[in-house]
């Protein structure tokens, strides 16, 4: 019997060398699909492919690509089509995500926010998602079948609580940058637009809103953020695999333009 959770074709994953890229890839590979892993970092891409050694090598394709460059993305599609791979999914996962211990500081003050950073981060998070949607989405639309997942965040629904990034000993204030909130909210708009634009072409598009993910953050931060989450902890990296499989497969065939929130309950408080 054919499972409604089976993925019958190739799924493009951007930002594949990032924190969740490996998990997205495993979710697809474990349910019958193949992957095209895209990232700007060639070394990390090759390292990721090596980590996926337990899966069939022919099901794993890697592409060094700047998703803000339309020509580069078009070349990736051309190579995929030359291999006669049928694209059935796209995960817009690429983002520049500031690390708690390194990138959250007073330079992120709204009053003095660096506009070069604004351009860079929105280029990757919004323009890159748009370009990939245009190119891979239109390819799927021609084939009348496909699912797009835009990876947002719980901060695509709520504002960041800057208090959790600070401690009493710190003289300067730390802030989550405004770009992160703007990008993650923008992806919701892109999802709804895409879902209605290609609704007659068999393309579904949904937003996944993950909560914070445990990734060697300091104990003070972990304690503070956990108090904001009803389940009392941050997510483990692998806890989003099921959602990815659901959204890509026919198990979610009647779901489009929607937001799936998996945040341990943070956004309900």
Integer count of domains: 1
| Tally of individual helices | 8
Question: How does the major sheet shape up?
Answer: 7 strands, parallel
What would you give as the CATH superfamily? NAD(P)-binding Rossmann-like Domain
Key features?
269 residues; Rossmann fold; alpha/beta
Give a verbal description of the structure.
The protein has 269 residues and is of the alpha/beta class. It has one domain (10-268): Rossmann fold, CATH 3.40.50.720. The chain is 37% helix and 14% strand. It contains 8 helices and 7 strands, in the order βαβαβαβααβαβααβ. Strands 3-2-1-4-5-6-7 form a 7-stranded parallel beta sheet, with helices on both faces. The protein is globular, with a radius of gyration of 18 Å.
């Amino acid at each position: 019997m054919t499972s409604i959770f089976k993925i019958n074709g190739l799924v493009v994953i951007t930002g594949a060398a990032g924190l969740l890229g490996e998990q997205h890839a495993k979710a697809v590979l474990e349910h019958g699909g193949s992957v095209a892993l895209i990232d700007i970092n060639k070394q990390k891409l090759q390292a990721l492919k090596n980590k996926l050694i337990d899966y069939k090598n022919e099901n794993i394709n890697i592409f060094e690509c700047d998703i803000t460059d339309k020509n580069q993305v078009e070349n990736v599609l051309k190579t995929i089509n030359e291999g006669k791979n049928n694209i059935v999914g796209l995960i817009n996962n690429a983002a520049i995500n500031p690390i708690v211990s390194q990138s959250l500081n007073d330079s992120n003050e709204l009053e003095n926010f660096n506009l070069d950073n604004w351009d860079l981060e929105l280029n990757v998070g919004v323009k890159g998602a748009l370009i990939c949607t245009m190119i891979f989405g239109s390819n799927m639309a021609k084939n009348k079948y496909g699912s797009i997942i835009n990876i947002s965040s719980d901060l695509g629904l709520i504002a960041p609580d800057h208090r959790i990034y600070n401690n009493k000993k710190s003289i300067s204030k730390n802030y989550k940058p405004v770009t992160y909130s703007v990008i993650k909210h923008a992806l919701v708009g892109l999802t709804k637009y895409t879902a209605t634009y290609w609704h007659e072409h068999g393309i579904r598009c949904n937003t996944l809103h993950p909560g914070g993910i445990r990734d060697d953050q300091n104990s003070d931060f972990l304690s503070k953020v956990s108090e904001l989450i009803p389940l009392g902890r941050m997510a483990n990296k692998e806890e989003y695999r099921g959602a990815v499989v659901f959204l890509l497969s026919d198990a979610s065939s009647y779901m489009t333009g929607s937001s799936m929130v998996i945040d341990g309950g943070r956004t309900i408080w």
